[in-house]
Amino acid sequence: MRTGRPKTLLVLTDEERAQLQSLARSRSLSAALTARARIVLSCADGEVNAAVARRLRLNEATVGKWRRRFVGQRIAGLHDEIKPGKPRSIDDEQVAQLIYRTLHTKPANASSHWSVRTMADEIGFSKSTVQRYFHLFGLQPHRTQSFKLSTDPFFIEKLRDVVGLYMSPPENALVLCVDEKSQVQALQRTQPMLPLGLGYVEGVTHDDVRHGTTTLFAALDVLNGTVITQCKPRHRHQEFLGFLRTIDRAVPQELDLHVIVDNDSTHKHAKVKTWLAQRPRWHLHFIPTYSSWLNLVERFFALITDKAIRRGSFTSVKDLISKIDHFITQYNKNSSPFVWTATAESILAKIERLTLRITGTPH
């Protein structure tokens, strides 16, 4: 009786068996590789190819292939061989030319930037090729990012002062970030909003009815993230002084107050200075000009704008104020601080790198 070609004896070392068992149990490797490991383990236990194929629901030829591959190449033979791909049609010099033109030139018929299509036409590549290299090298010529370097002659001193309050607040004191969000509009959509659904986003009308504005004054507690707020009809030193009085009543008298504010004229009014001079526990710290990013209360303003104002519809200023107050009440119940991590030195180093990119010389 013909039994076929005799099989080469498959014997495993202890180390090989342990590696194959690890491959067979893995949930992160490919299914093909784990199946090959099971084939070899079964063959090493004495099962014939036909029995292994039936049990693992594979073709008998497949079992025989990986048995032979393992005998010849051991565990390395179970991995797929690297297949040679199509030769590159674009060499390094052409890629360098693409990058150089994107960074240092502009289209002849435009004064702004290259697009994927215009660069493809200019350099003779396909649009998909240009898109691939743009993505690979992080080139985004269609985008811009705004910035403004401070011109404050005391920028470094003010920066160190404010960052020091964030990272090492004084004892027996409260650090507050104070500012106002002016001209918050009570906008009412002219038609009802379309609700969010499966396959489509929330819809709002492009036009609205304006019912007036309010100014939101806020003081953010750096320690725990809670806010003290007031909505007032106008943005003048009178309203700012009234808000300071509200803070003064809310904070225990035994605590000093270190208040971080910007350089708005309402914050430096003579009457405000006089009021502060009569209260020695108050200390104002001014951020440098054009540096609103240093005031953590701006993060709160961004949050309330996104969550409660931008996509709302308000029938009146009173309705707007009511919904702002409701949001703040809920926010303070579950508030968490905005943790400042950047040191003054790291900020100064970043600004130096930025000015070097702009001018080619350190600031």
Explained architecture:
With 363 residues, the protein is α/β, with parallel strands linked by helices. The protein has three domains: 14-78; 92-136; 155-354, Nucleotidyltransferase, domain 5, CATH 3.30.420.10. It is built from 13 helices and five strands. Strands 3-2-1-4-5 form a five-stranded mixed β-sheet, with helices on both faces. β2 (208-221) and β3 form a beta hairpin. The chain is elongated and about 100 Å long. The termini are far apart. The model has no long low-confidence stretch (mean pLDDT 87).
In short:
With 363 residues, the chain is an alpha/beta fold. It has helices at residues 14-25, 31-44, 49-56, 60-73, 92-104, 116-123, 127-136, 155-167, 237-250, 270-277, 297-309, 317-333, 344-359; strands spanning 173-189, 208-221, 227-232, 256-261, 282-286.
Which structural traits does this protein have?
single chain, 363 residues, alpha/beta, Nucleotidyltransferase, domain 5, five-stranded mixed beta sheet, 13 helices, 5 strands, 13% strand, elongated
Largest sheet: 5 strands, mixed
CATH topology of the largest domain: Nucleotidyltransferase, domain 5
Spell out the CATH superfamily of the largest domain. Ribonuclease H-like superfamily/Ribonuclease H
Average pLDDT for all residues: 87
Radius of gyration: 34 Å
Name given to the CATH architecture of the largest domain: 2-Layer Sandwich
CATH C-level class of the largest domain is Alpha Beta
Q: What portion of the residues fall into strands of 2 or more residues?
A: 5-15%
Give helix % range. 40-55%
Strand order of the largest sheet: 3-2-1-4-5
Cα end-to-end separation:
92 Å
Class inferred from helices and paired strands: alpha/beta
Gross geometry: elongated
Number of domains: 3
Order of SSEs: HHHHHHHHEEEHEHEHHH
Q: Got a strand count?
A: 5
